[in-house]
Design goal:
By secondary structure, the chain is mainly α. About 85% of the residues lie in helices and about 0% in strands.
């Protein structure tokens, strides 16, 4: 039977389910169900009745509620039989509680709870180490299982990767051979292009030497200016000589007219000698001497005129020769300079084209080297991967 001290102990333990003395003298179905549910929950069981645990003294009679109450009665019966196999608790005693049976049952259950709490710490202390080892072993086993599963997954993925790479290996080898052939062809083309560039450089050097040689053969700018100055001086001399010749010709014409006049006068004087006084004849002789002297001067002037004319003709011919040489040399120089410039321009264009082609080939060669290095890296990776897989497989076989 529950004493007053037992009721107080119950209320201390079960704060959410307080017992009053009236509940024990006149127990109801609802009170007993609430008390037993709180008791079972104390042991850590998850008990959820299909009806609310309110202050109602009765429970609705339906199939779900009856099944829950039957399970509750069996659980309480199990607790009672732990203490003493002669004790029992039935479904009827749950739905039709009596003061004596209710107090006796709650008393036994309360004592069992106190006993359980008393020895639980020692029992748990004794079982703590094995439980801890159990959990450690369980965690180790789970960890090993996860590692094995991860290794199996990695092995499958690696196997799939190896299979895929093995399938790609012939294609990669073919591509490697093709790239090697392309590289060899590119090397050959590059070598030919380099030789062609060297040949063009030699030709360009030869043309530069030829240009310097032509520049030495052609009249220099300073010499050309001196020649032009000399030609201008000759032109000035020719013009001056022509002017002097014209002046001499006019003077000679006047002198010729004077001589003709004197000759006529001489004839007239000779004809009139008999009738002209002696004094006048002497004057005429003197005049005749002057006339002869003038005629001699005329002959000298004519000779000088002939010499001057010949000099003018020589100078004119020399001028024409020099001018013709100057024009010829200038034309030759312009033709050669134009041809040389065109040749240099052509060579520069060819050299630029060859240089661009060489840069393009070098770029392609660089890209080709990168592809070959990539293929080598893939091949090395495949070899290392296959070696690791074989090593792992051999180790696993021996284990």
């Amino acid at each position: 039977m529950l004493t007053k001290e037992d009721v107080e102990g119950w209320n201390k333990v079960f704060a959410d389910c307080q017992i009053k003395q009236s509940d024990l003298t006149q127990p109801t179905e609802g009170f007993l169900i609430r008390a037993l549910v709180c008791y079972i929950r104390r042991f850590g069981y998850k008990v959820e009745p299909p009806f609310p645990l309110n202050k109602s003294d009765t429970v609705e009679n339906n199939r779900e509620n009856r099944l829950f109450l039957i399970r509750l009665a069996r659980q309480i019966d199990h607790f009672l039989k732990i203490t003493d196999k002669s004790y029992s608790f039935t479904y009827y005693e749950l739905i039709r509680p009596t003061p004596k049976k209710t107090s006796h049952t709650l008393y036994i259950l309360l004592n069992y709870l106190f006993y359980y709490n008393m020895y639980k710490e020692e029992v748990f202390k004794m079982a703590q180490e094995p439980i801890q080892k159990y959990h450690e072993l369980k965690a180790q086993i789970e960890r090993q299982q996860r590692e094995n599963e991860l290794k199996a997954q990695q092995s499958n993925e690696l196997k799939m990767t190896v299979d895929e790479l093995t399938k790609k290996l012939p294609q990669l080898r073919t591509e490697h051979r093709e790239l090697a052939k392309r590289k060899a062809s590119q090397d050959e083309s590059l070598q030919k292009l380099k030789e062609s560039c060297e040949e063009l450089s030699e030709r360009l050097k030869h043309l530069h030497e030829q240009k310097r040689s032509l520049q030495k053969k052609v009249v220099a700018d300073e010499e050309s200016r001196e020649l032009q100055k000399h030609i201008d001086n000759i032109k000035a001399d020719i013009a001056r000589h022509k002017e002097m010749a014209n002046t001499s010709e006019n003077s000679l014409r006047e002198l010729s007219n004077s001589v003709e006049l004197m000759q006529r006068l001489k004839k007239e004087i000779e004809n009139a000698r008999d009738i002209v006084p002696l004094r006048l004849i002497d004057q005429l002789k003197e005049t005749n001497k002057q006339l002869e002297k003038a005629m001699a001067d005329e002959r000298t002037a004519q000779e000088r005129r002939s010499i001057l004319t010949q000099n003018i003709e020589d100078e004119q011919q020399k001028y024409e020769t020099l001018e013709h040489q100057y024009v010829t040399k200038k034309q030759q120089f312009e033709v050669k300079e134009k041809a040389h410039k065109e040749s240099l321009q052509t060579l520069h264009e060819v050299l630029k084209e060859k240089t661009d082609h060489l840069a393009k080939l070098e770029k392609e060669e660089h890209a080709l080297d990168g592809q070959i290095d990539e293929q080598k890296d893939i091949a090395e990776y495949l070899e290392e991967t296959i070696s690791e897989i074989l090593t792992t497989y051999v180790i696993s076989e021996y284990q």
